[in-house]
Amino acid sequence: xxxxxxxxxxxxxxxxPLLAAWTGPYGGVPPWDRVKPELxxxxxxxxIAERRAEIAAIAGSKQPASFANTVEALxxxxxxxxxxxxxxxxxxxxxNSPAYQALDKEWAPKLSAANDExxxxxxxxxxxxxxxxxxxxxxxxxxxxxxxxxxQFVRSGAKLVPAQKAQLSAYNQQLAAAxxxxxxxxxxxxxKAIFFTSEADLAGxxxxxxxxxxxxxxxxxxxxxxxxxNTRSAVDPFLTFATKRDLREKVWRAFVNRGDNGDAxxxxxxxxxxxxxxxxxxxxxxxxxxxxxxxQDTMAKTxxxxxxxxxxxxxxxxxxxxxxVADMQAIADKEGAKISIEPWDYRFYAEKVRKARYxxxxxxxxxxxxxxxxxxxxxxSAGRLYGYxxxxxxxxxxxxxxxxxxxxxxxxxxxxGLFYGDYFARTGKRSGAWMxxxxxxxxxxxxxxxxASNNNNFAPAAPGEPVLISLDDAETLFHEFxxxxxxxxxxxxYPGLSGVPRDFVEFPSQVNEHWVLTRDVLDKFARHYxxxxxxxxxxxxxxxQSEKFNQGFATVEYLASxxxxxxxxKRADGVVDVDSFERETLARxxxxxxxxxRHRLPQFGHLFSSDAYSAGYYSYLWSETMDAxxxxxxxxxxxPWDEATAGRFLKxxxxxxxxxxxxxxxxxxxxxxxxxxxLLRQRGFPTE
Length: 688
Prior knowledge:
The chain has helices at residues 3-6, 40-59, 67-76, 79-94, 98-119, 122-133, 140-155, 162-190, 207-219, 232-241, 245-256, 268-284, 290-294, 303-334, 346-358, 362-365, 371-386, 471-489, 502-505, 507-512, 519-525, 537-545, 551-569, 578-589, 605-608, 619-637, 643-654, 662-670, 676-682; strands at 193-196, 226-229, 388-392, 405-411, 414-424, 434-439, 450-458. With 688 residues, the protein is an alpha+beta fold. A 5-stranded mixed β-sheet has the order 3-4-5-7-6, with helices on both faces. It has a two-stranded antiparallel ribbon with strand order 1-2. Helix 23 (551-569) packs across helix 24 and helix 27 (643-654) packs antiparallel against helix 28 (662-670). The longest helix is centred in the middle third of the chain and has 32 residues, at 303-334. The radius of gyration is 25 Å and the shape is globular. The termini are far apart.
């Protein structure tokens, strides 16, 4: 299908529902029932023009620059475009049909150029700088807002000369186009599946996994077959339970080679282009590397600080992998398998070790983790810790897909926001799990409440069957919900102080994972999907005893990705052969041969679908250092539900957005900087 066929002609702006202010209950809600791809070109064109006029009025004002007529005016500008962009971003992530892919390819560079118009507007920057130079007269919140605004403009090129500004905007537009290209290629590879004609090929999988594979095949027009879709939520269970080793290898190779098959969906050339453009942009902006540029507005501040943390953990993790492999090899030898452990064996034999060591089988756990129960468990935890209540209102407000559910969130009887849950994998939805805010909270110009969503890729069950998820899936559910709690808890005045540093953003979500395995949650919500009986105490005890199991694998697959990311983006010239760089970097750091990175470069969407996590994948570890130390505070209180600790966490860290420096806020919460030893203890690694 050509782009012209994929993207219908634009609707006239005057009749465009995407341009209207959001109406209805809850402070207005997105008009998902009226969103169509053909509406976006006219809506984006009109919204960009409206914002351009607003910016021109601010920059061209004859009045002396003041906080009110410059900084606050900027806080108000572009609200129509913000709404349209929110709709567009959700559709291109969650419902990415060929029509939306064509629109994304066309509009990503245009939107980048429109943003550069603001950053590179010399008259506007002169007014911001004038307010910044007089900031001593402002209150602390205003000082922080104008300082962050000024630094953002400088970091983004506001002080460049005109020719440099033109070059910078060209780089940004080329990057935006490359990000769209990478995303569409990766999505195409993840939409593929491996089909099996015999149920015997799925030997070892639990009944729920076999049913999900059958449903996936039927959805793809192959009834009577079984399909393992090329996404993590389908592949990981197959690699854990499937007894046919040759088929594990087949599924594993398809998964780890996404974007790396030398075909139309190969991403290597696109990645090389992105890395070079990033390096050239950093040089133009006066930085030695993309990593150095990206880390200016983080808690770590420098690539060296991030590297130092990663290398404190890496040796212990690699050592633990060697122990784990030895345990698995012993079982394989005892069974007479006559193999050496390979990457497609790791999850399978790790499960055997788990069963042998703890008498614990993941298939034994899964019947107790029914999706609806675990959603309610997340709500229960948020209620007990922070006082939130959730009332389902699905069907009363529009949604973008029929299976999306919606809850009204209140606290003490007062409305807080809405929570949307989009839980299931489908064609056109990007892989992984993520959180989105359709609208963020603020009190500037009157109260505005949060509209938050969680997006997962759980495998749908066959009709009439329950959706059973793994313990890992349950922790992912709580993780993403932790992001939602963070933004539902926010109580800030200026919207410009809502965004937190990249290496803080994962912190609240990682903290929230801890409550999955609290005894109270398991006793109340881990109920067998058939008998409704709670998980037996003996099984709960075995799960708790195995918490540190396989932490070598989990840490190394993540850290290898984070180290490769940082090394890639520290290159001053940005010239890279992607395949050899990945291979040589892993060899240099001693990557165990029995494993592969969690995200190989050809499919590393965190890095190459946008700038968001580039030179920033380390941030999960940085955040987890704070997370482990925060959980230690609850442990020191002797109660995972300790009201004083939860209240202090909410007040000091969750509700404050970026109104204060996040390192200072953490010190205010804990009385000191986070201790990496808590992270090492949490993973069962030596602390000395």
